[in-house]
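User: My instructor asked us to take a sequence, write out its structure as tokens, and then describe one feature of it. I'm not sure where to start. Here is the sequence I was given:
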Amino acid sequence: MSLSRTEYKFWIDAEQYCQWKDEISQRLAVDQNPGNSGDYPILSQYYDTAERDCYWEKQRGFKSRRKIRLRIYGSETAKIPPAGFLEVKHKLQGLGVKRRLPMSIEAAQNFGLGDDDVLRGMYDQVGRSGRIIIDEVLGMRAAGHNPSMQIRYDRNAFSSPDGKLRITFDNLLRCRPEFPKLLPDDQDFSKFIIAEGESIMEVKSIGAVPYWLRQRAGETGLSRRSFSKYCTSLEKHDPVLGSQLRQARQRQESAA
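Assistant: Let's start with the prediction itself. The structure tokens for your sequence are:
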């Protein structure tokens, strides 16, 4: 389990990306894990109920909420080979906690295609924390959490020596509401989540954000903006949520 941390997100344009990447690269080291020189692709498969409860819990500001995310980092051409992880993202009283289970690429791919027995087969091979994650995921799967969106982007990552500050830039955010086998560095994603050239800058901090970062944010006019890759992808490209939103608008119009 990762430590509780605070996260700050910024939706930036191409000019801001170049400016901030240059600033950050002079102050923080390139994150080498995973990927090649801090640059690596990320493929994620998100899970939700048929009613899209995970989406609506976030929109309605639930203080405690969870969702499953299956991830594959890296590519065959990177210095570090691809790595798979099964995660439960848990928001609790404003703090993000991420429970993570490492998986082989084959196991991650098979689970992504619906083979829950992959997790049952791992049960005796992992420690207590791993078994807790497996039980949690299987419980959520039994409650109706199924694949709801696949997302891909390229990440530039930087971190402080003590690991308490991590800053990432996510570029070329794309998605697809279909669920083929997750392949490392798969490029077959045609639906953009935000405009090409725009990026999401994330500041993840354990403890206080450094003064220099707050000062530079003020000097450059950088302002926080709530952003969820998952929620935005659903709003733009998920037929299930699209139908729900249309029905809600129709009810509002009828009531007006």
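For the description part of your assignment, you could build on this observation: The radius of gyration is 19 Å. Try explaining in your own words what that tells you about the chain.
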